[in-house]
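Changelog note: in this version the structure field was regenerated for every chain. One regenerated record is shown below for reference.
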Amino acid sequence: MSFSYEVKTELCRADIGSRQMAADQAYGILLYANTFSAGEIRVVTGNADFAAHLARLFKRAFGVEFDSVTGDAQKGKSAFLINDAKKLSRILGAYGCDDKSLTAVHINLGALEEDGAKELFLRGAFLAGGSVTDPEKRYHLELSTTHPFVSRELPALLSDVGFESKLVKRGQNYVTYFKMSSVIEDFLTKIGAPVAAMRIMNTKIEKDMTNSVNRRVNCDTANVLKTVVAAEEQLHAIKKLRDSGAFESLPDKLREAAEARENSPELSLAELSAAMGLTKSGLNHRMRKITELADGL
């Protein structure tokens, strides 16, 4: 089961509400359905919960039933069809248009002036033409319609409820999308899917924690590697001085530092300086001097 499927199932659990609320949600479904014209309405879904919700919603909003339902949402996809002229006229009239004026589909913002109407419209749009990527993979939510004017008018509606979106044309579809996780969380909460929004938030927190731990581990590993390499270089220089017989002629401070390194090759410079009662910079200066003397042999 995909994350989009889960989100739509959550949206369908909400109460349909009044006739007007049902009509607001149905409007989003119609404009983002597979077909919405003066001669036909066709909604296709593979979500069993949405299929059951759709029939109840249209009954409440318009007092109509679908003329036919083909397929099986439990097994694949179901297609809900209305082509009866009287039913179509009733549905179109609910949004201030008729079969003659519906030459191009627009969003009638005048039909969405009640409180919460735009959010219900967006819920319907997501149910019919929306998808959201699993947050474990990436962050992407989109609404896809075949109506160009609807896609151009949707940003204004989204802006009214606090969202800025982007548009792209993909084949015959016009896609409105969001890519920021915080925006997707807010959008899902706004349309009635707070559980899904919380899942995105928790996933993001887990990702951030994992990345933080990985960065810390990588940093610690790099520091250990630097310590090992530096100690090996110092030990190599000390051995070179011993093999050449120059070690015994070293100043006492340098010889003391060299012997401390030989006795504690696993310690970092900071740890070794602390053990000797020196500053890190002071011990580093002595080790650098030892290395320079060895290189000069």
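Spot check on this record: The chain has two domains: 3-192, 215-295. The CA atoms of residues 238 and 259 lie 9 Å apart.
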